[in-house]
Amino acid sequence: MKKLFAATAVALVTAHAASAETFRWAGTTDPQTLDPHAVNSAPVLGFLNNVYEGLVRRDQNMQVEGALATSWEALGSDGWRFNLRQGVKFQDGSDFNAEDVVFSYERATRPESDVASWFSTIAEVKAVDDYTVDFLTKAPNPIFPDTIANFMIMDKGWTETNNSAVPAKEEENHATRNTNGTGAFKVVERQVDLKTVLEPHSGWWDEATHNITQGVFTPIQNPATAVAALLSGEVDMINPVPTQDVARLSASDEVKVMVGIEARVIMFGFAHQADELKYSADAGKPNPFKDVRVRQAVNHAINVDAIVQTIMRGSAEPISQLVSSTMRGYSDSLAARPEFNQDKARALLAEAGYPDGFSFGLKCPNNRYINDEAVCQAAVGMLAQIGLKAELDAMPVSNYWPELRADNFDMYMLGWSPGSFDAEHPIRFLVTTPNPEKKLGSWNFGDFSNARVDELLPMIQSEVDDSKRQAMLDEAAKILQDEAGYVPMYVQALLWGARSNVDVVQRADNFFILRWASVN
């Protein structure tokens, strides 16, 4: 998989000088919000990378480079100093400086923010002068710059003037539908669930290499409709290409299919702490998923190889951990998945006191991940073979996240792409015991909790010796496997379709960056 990733993570054709063009692209999910601190999800962060910028950003090969900071250096073991870029303008013409960085940090770490966990190691942020900011850490943090590539800076004056100083996750404020970033493009029209229109930011500090005069994003949930729009030229790019249409589109001279391996791991999670089941005929009965043997039984009952071959048509990679083998901190010694073994699964259920199985509710999205509902339906059939009767409730992702945040599930599907490309990332967000005060576990919907993992996390974050750090990551991964905290299934494929006259860059985090696009 490492070789495949390296060969396909970036599909780039050098942009040629060409006439200015409108670029239209479609995805299955409309960004839930335009507030960069309100929702920590790929549709939001990926889209807003075109509008807002951070101190650092990732290039086409996922390497960190300067953006609003020109350089940074460690302050010994006390933190990091960022030297800011001078002369940068927000899209309303106001100046960028250290005040905006400190304000954005304070806003992003409020309890209402969904990205606060990015700063769990930070004790204080200080503006040294107008163009120097210190991020002081509670302990050494050697990978901090890598963890904040999606930390986007907002204009303090604009945000406060528009009464948006507090992020709005479920509600709305001015920043929900309006933007004022420093990025290459600005939002000029926003129709939720219909279209969002971007135009170049004429005052952008960097050199524009694209030839786009207007970008139009349209959410298209129906896969057949998206394919038809691509073939007709109504849109220039779709993401994703339905797996069943890859061969047909590849055979067309009018379009091209870009194939890669994403950083995203698709998994199932459980309600670990709920006392009772919430759905199905067994609602109100004691929650079986609190028993590790039941969770292990689910792991052995799901035939991931069959899902990859039949539903994903071979375009995904089975996985045993919450990160892929391309990520820093992946545990090579724990690469093997639990074997598909229905007899073993039934024996575990019987041992746990459920020889006849039970029924429960399974929550899944139907427009967030490739074939998400189909994978959940397949899992329902597989679990039925061992006596577990799953009542599937699949819904659009705009409804899905509120359901998970309200703990309205017995078992659920989740995809996770580590923003830092490091195994520490999912431990911090998905595995650590939820603790809003410490800004930890913000996406640990099922409330998995293990005291040793909680103890390991700060040591992992501060350890500068790679071998010692890897040993701790290995220990945490082993605990998670033994406890069956999640059921990691596969690394999702990247399947983009584009018109043949379009050049785009396919990045491993599945973010579409409009400034790298051109129409020839």
Strand content: 15-25%
Query: What would you report as the Rg, rounded to the nearest angstrom?
Result: 23 Å
Segments where pLDDT lies below 50 for 5+ residues?
1-18
Helical proportion, percent range? 25-40%
Number of strands: 19
Give the helix/strand class.
alpha+beta
- Cα(first) to Cα(last) distance is 33 Å
What is the averaged pLDDT score? 94
Major sheet characteristics = 11 strands, mixed
Q: Give me the number of helical elements.
A: 16
So what's the overall shape?
globular
Concise synopsis of the structure shown:
This protein is an alpha+beta fold and 520 residues long.
Structure description:
It is a single chain. The protein is an alpha+beta fold and 520 residues long. The protein is 27% helix and 23% strand. The chain is built from 16 helices and 19 strands. Strands 1, 8, 9, 10, 11, 12, 13, 14, 15, 16 and 17 form an eleven-stranded mixed beta sheet that branches. A four-stranded antiparallel beta sheet has the order 4-5-7-6, covered by helices on one side.
